[in-house]
């Protein structure tokens, strides 16, 4: 039997591959007609996340079309608050909503029933590992405590997460309790994903960029460190990608502070700084998703610059954030073949 190579895992071990492996955040999504078709068969978006048949299908769609090097479990970071009875719903055109939590609500949170609630997602992971090509890395994921907490406190998305920032200053004790609680149950959830067949996991801290220096250390980096330590105490070889969107210069110490194997980079991270970060280990990123919408020269030059600056070190090629619904599927074809076509 020939040896199976999972290239994303090789890069997570520090190897430099030419061409680099590629996958895209939100690669299963509304830019694909086959996703929209499956989505229409599910009742709500959460039904899609909790129906293994459908979740497996949409996870596989971008793998069939583009043969990406990694598949990411189809789910959402907000299944955690949903499992905590926050009544999460996704309304068309309005983004996510849930019942906002206050200090008393935080004191009443408990982990009972969370694992049971998330069982269909874990079932999706095990079926995916059986159905994916052997060489495709399977990524599990969850939200970072800070980002999940921002939605739980506001009850919806906001442009700057002012409600959570304000709550953290007014109720520091309860807020830190919330982050620690989310870190612990999210670590349990990641261990379950790994045991079901996830080869590596990504932690999404999509709202890290609204935090000041001190708050980034306490609310973003520390809970992610706690999560990774909790996962590794049980699964010592677990591989973790940490994506703190918008963190800018604060990414300098993020790998060391959290213990992540690889650091995800958004498109605002200068490539010269990305190259510095890459001296300490693998990086993932960071093409502007709008270049995929634009296509043509904008797409090509963006890809080439990343490969020129980061292509000789450990790199997982990705976008700097999720692909948007306006992206043309044919531009993704062009993206993948340009990344793979270079020697
Ligand atoms: O392909 C993949 O990347 C896996 C699936 C995935 C989804 N959400 C599916 C989804 C992943 C990894 C996520 C993570 C997620 N969810 C994050 C972190 C990453 C990021 O984008 O910043 C956040 C903040 C959320 C919360 C969330 N979910 C929001 C704010 C929204 C609404 C915005 C939107 O794009 O509509 C969602 C909905 C969502 N999650 C969709 C998908 C495909 C679109 C809803 C639909 O198809 O009806």
List keywords for this structure.
TIM Barrel, two-stranded antiparallel sheet, 17 helices, binds coproporphyrinogen III, Uroporphyrinogen decarboxylase, Uroporphyrinogen_deCOase
Would you write up a description of this structure?
InterPro entries: UROD/MetE-like_sf, Uroporphyrinogen_deCO2ase_HemE, Uroporphyrinogen_deCOase. Its EC number is 4.1.1.37. Homodimer. It holds the Pfam family URO-D. The model has no long low-confidence stretch (mean pLDDT 97). This protein has one domain: TIM Barrel (Alpha-Beta Barrel), CATH 3.20.20. The chain is globular. Helix 9 packs across helix 11 and helix 14 packs parallel to helix 16. The chain is α/β, with parallel strands linked by helices. The strands form 2 sheets. It has a 7-stranded parallel beta sheet with strand order 1-4-5-6-7-8-9. Helix content is 52%, strand content 12%. The site of coproporphyrinogen III (CP3) has 21 residues, from strand 3. Coproporphyrinogen III binds next to strand 3.
Silhouette: globular
Q: What value does the Rg take, in angstroms?
A: 19 Å
Low-confidence stretches: none
Q: Report the CATH C-level class.
A: Alpha Beta
What is the second-level CATH architecture? Alpha-Beta Barrel
Q: Could you state the order of secondary-structure elements as H and E?
A: HHHHEHEEHHHEHHHEHEHEHEHHEH
CA distance, first residue to last residue:
28 Å
The kinds of small molecule bound in this structure are: coproporphyrinogen III
Give the number of domains: 1
Name the beta content range: 5-15%
Site (Transition state stabilizer): 76
Catalytic activity: uroporphyrinogen III + 4 H(+) = coproporphyrinogen III + 4 CO2
Subcellular location: Cytoplasm
Protein name: Uroporphyrinogen decarboxylase
